[in-house]
Amino acid sequence: MAAFTLTVNGQSHRVEASPEMPLLWVLRDRLGLTGTKFGCGQGLCGACTVHLGDAPVRSCKTRLGDVGSRHITTIEGLDPHGAHPLQKAWVELDVAQCGYCQTGQIMTAAALLAKNPHPSDADIDHALGRNACRCGTYLRIREAVHAAAGQRREVIP
Amino acid sequence: MTDRRDFLKIAGVAGAGLVLGLRLDAKTRPGAAAAPEFAPNAFLAVRPDGTVRITVPKTEMGQGVRTALPLVVAEEMDLDWAKVEVINANPGPDFKSMQTGGSTSVSSTWGTLRKAGATAREMLKAAAAARWNVDLKSCRTEKGFVLGPGNQKLGYGALVEAAAKLPVPKDPSLKSPRDYRLLGKRTPRFDGPDIVTGKAIFGLDVRRPGQRFAAVLRSTVCTGRPMAWDAGKALEVPGVVDVVKVPTGIAVIATNTWAALKGRERLAADTTWELGSAQDFNSADLETFMREALTGPGEEARKQGDAEKALVAAAKVLEAEYSFPYQAHATVEPMNATVQIRPEGAEMWTGSQSPNKAQATAAAALGLKPEQVKVNVALIGGGFGRRLGTDFSTEAAQVAKAAGGGPIQVVWDREDDFRHDLHHPATLHRLRAGLDASGALTAWAHRIAGPSILHSWVGQKTPSQVLAEANGALDIPYAIPAIRVDYAEVAAPTPLGWWRGIEIVPNVFARECFFDEVAHAVGKDPLQLRLDLLGNQGLVKFGRDEADIRRLKKVLQVAAEKAGWGRKLPAGRGLGLACHAYDGRTYAAEVAEVSVEKGQLRIHKVTCAVDCGFVVNPAGLEAQVEGGIAFGLSALFTQITWEKGHTVQTGYQEFPLLRLGDMPEVETHVVQSAEAPSGIGEPPVPLAIPAVLNAVFAATGKRIRKVPVDLSAI
């Protein structure tokens, strides 16, 4: 057990836990941030994706001890009112079916757009190609990322 | 002939008459301190502020019932959709059969929910007419208001008290579809905003005060049980608070999920097992037994003419074997349930497709009456039939009981989920077709061999299981003089369950691919041969269902036309098609366009035409078609195999789900129909595999008869 200070969605939290504990369970079971989902625990499905600094990471494979001083952003902090262009596009294009994997999809897409504001189909397929959706919402995911990128174009000339 | 229909009957939970035991006369019980509400039935309550709470009697698992079913009520009530709040029903006297499966959520509630909404609308109107002292017939309703013959206007909220005092009409008039303002229009999912902000609560997101987390150490063999264990090292893991025995294994209880999983890892090293009846079960042996059963005795599912005689008399006989593997549901949210036991009873939170059964089985496990167990239905992170089972929720009740009451959330990890799934079983298929000298199809014989889902589900052989296991094969819609479809059960010790598309997936795969073989063998275009043999048939009875072949023919024509069937394609590219009348209720056809280059299969596009009666929400329908096709395509490359009673596959590494880059373009065409809504969740699934594999043949001349597809063969 050790004490860690984490910055999650701009808020500072003190957590006492083993440095081995995956960030996923710190977020879900210790901080009550259940928007980040447990899918496989093996880094294969992407449901647990959060941002560490600017990078999308699989929180199920990120040890608490490796977070360091990097800021963590979860779906709850992407935009608390759902006003991020991706969230708006997701709702407008009715992307979600069961919805379980979608927060991980959105966090992965948000990291892509931050780096590449106007991604091509291939860019999107590459960035989101490791996020599984058993309901098969893929076509709408791609469409929504494009739509959000268009929205961005208006916001950031 | 749905197998789940048999299950419903056997389980004694199907309601005859009033749909599925949903009671229209029952009243919801408002909370103790609640303001007065107008709640003429269990499905809705109008509050004084004009907001309306609609109670959904089916489980949301991504198919959109928390949007589609409230829309039906809102339409009949003439509500402002923005003022609708949606809650899930709890199983109980008002909701005796909430079972969600078989693509029946809309069709089974359609009549009841329309009547529920119409009842409320008529009572609100009557309350306003009385207040204004005008003729009821001169009043109408619009977007949450009653409008009078002058300029009178009253919101529903203002009429709550008066309406509640009126008699409930027995036979309220239903709206004409011409007047629909919500139904038939695109409405986005009700839960969309909560899903994209992470606020939506799935079973695994339930958090109760003082909640603990548990991981159950189960045998890696599906029938195994623990013999002896030493909990010492597990209890040393910080956060682990208890280790308890339950019937399925040993539960490690902790203050967080990770500690429970870590404790379980330590416990596994110090446990010995009794492996049970499945310990010698291998896929290779099962295949041998299934192959033997392809030529042994079989139970008849459909007999028309004398197919054996016709095969003997045929000028030419074609024969082929098709193979489909065990499959996993692989929902992204693993199984879980949270249970709290209090002196007066228990409460459960879980994503269940069978809430009533979850209540009954948990009650039995806890020694309580069903009404003492409150089941709260959480959102489901993927169901596909897996959560019809109550193994996981019952186990959670047992863990809570053994650990002193909870609240405890039992969490399965990915490996638990694959190993202890209720898998969809493997089948082998032997198909034979007899052709006369002119090349006309005179005989069709389809033998299915494999384990029976229904047998596993109810724990005994049932007379109707042959119809369930042959679903999709026995209802071959083509007019062939002699048809024999039969089934030979092959025993398997693994627990089985239905999977999205059920037995229709393997059976239609074999049927529609072999039909394609016949077409090519006689030099006919596969579309033309289908159209010829659908012919001028009208209503045809198959088993217990009746299908309208005209509707099937229509969707086939639409799909073929929209996909550009017959157009010239570059080398290495091909079109394939498949069609089916799902349970005689929903008619669907798909055309796949694929290319094969350097051993790589690429599925470019799937064009789907469907006729599922009146479409409540076209947005939901399109999502189900896309999702159904994705589910079918995913199965092209996945399988569960068994070695010594273990699943060889334990994660997504060995069971690769379809990913974004593999998803083809999907084009959906709805054939408009005035019929009542039927269902759309499953019908698109079974057509994807045969459409693609028929397209692969068109592109390469290589016939693939085995799933998972071995690409090295092409």
UniProtKB/TrEMBL annotation, chain A:
<keyword id="KW-0479">Metal-binding</keyword>
<dbReference type="InterPro" id="IPR001041">
    <property type="entry name" value="2Fe-2S_ferredoxin-type"/>
</dbReference>
<keyword id="KW-0001">2Fe-2S</keyword>
<dbReference type="InterPro" id="IPR036010">
    <property type="entry name" value="2Fe-2S_ferredoxin-like_sf"/>
</dbReference>
<keyword id="KW-0560">Oxidoreductase</keyword>
<feature type="domain" description="2Fe-2S ferredoxin-type">
    <location>
        <begin position="2"/>
        <end position="78"/>
    </location>
</feature>
<dbReference type="InterPro" id="IPR012675">
    <property type="entry name" value="Beta-grasp_dom_sf"/>
</dbReference>
<dbReference type="InterPro" id="IPR051452">
    <property type="entry name" value="Diverse_Oxidoreductases"/>
</dbReference>
<dbReference type="Pfam" id="PF01799">
    <property type="entry name" value="Fer2_2"/>
</dbReference>
<keyword id="KW-0408">Iron</keyword>
<dbReference type="Pfam" id="PF00111">
    <property type="entry name" value="Fer2"/>
</dbReference>
<keyword id="KW-0411">Iron-sulfur</keyword>
<dbReference type="InterPro" id="IPR002888">
    <property type="entry name" value="2Fe-2S-bd"/>
</dbReference>
<dbReference type="InterPro" id="IPR036884">
    <property type="entry name" value="2Fe-2S-bd_dom_sf"/>
</dbReference>
<dbReference type="InterPro" id="IPR006058">
    <property type="entry name" value="2Fe2S_fd_BS"/>
</dbReference>
<protein>
    <submittedName>
        <fullName>(2Fe-2S)-binding protein</fullName>
    </submittedName>
</protein>
From TrEMBL, chain B:
<dbReference type="InterPro" id="IPR037165">
    <property type="entry name" value="AldOxase/xan_DH_Mopterin-bd_sf"/>
</dbReference>
<dbReference type="InterPro" id="IPR000674">
    <property type="entry name" value="Ald_Oxase/Xan_DH_a/b"/>
</dbReference>
<dbReference type="Pfam" id="PF10518">
    <property type="entry name" value="TAT_signal"/>
</dbReference>
<dbReference type="InterPro" id="IPR012368">
    <property type="entry name" value="OxRdtase_Mopterin-bd_su_IorB"/>
</dbReference>
<protein>
    <submittedName>
        <fullName>Aldehyde oxidase</fullName>
    </submittedName>
</protein>
<dbReference type="InterPro" id="IPR006311">
    <property type="entry name" value="TAT_signal"/>
</dbReference>
<dbReference type="InterPro" id="IPR019546">
    <property type="entry name" value="TAT_signal_bac_arc"/>
</dbReference>
<dbReference type="InterPro" id="IPR046867">
    <property type="entry name" value="AldOxase/xan_DH_MoCoBD2"/>
</dbReference>
<feature type="domain" description="Aldehyde oxidase/xanthine dehydrogenase a/b hammerhead">
    <location>
        <begin position="197"/>
        <end position="277"/>
    </location>
</feature>
<dbReference type="Pfam" id="PF20256">
    <property type="entry name" value="MoCoBD_2"/>
</dbReference>
<dbReference type="InterPro" id="IPR036856">
    <property type="entry name" value="Ald_Oxase/Xan_DH_a/b_sf"/>
</dbReference>
<dbReference type="InterPro" id="IPR052516">
    <property type="entry name" value="N-heterocyclic_Hydroxylase"/>
</dbReference>
<dbReference type="InterPro" id="IPR008274">
    <property type="entry name" value="AldOxase/xan_DH_MoCoBD1"/>
</dbReference>
<dbReference type="Pfam" id="PF02738">
    <property type="entry name" value="MoCoBD_1"/>
</dbReference>
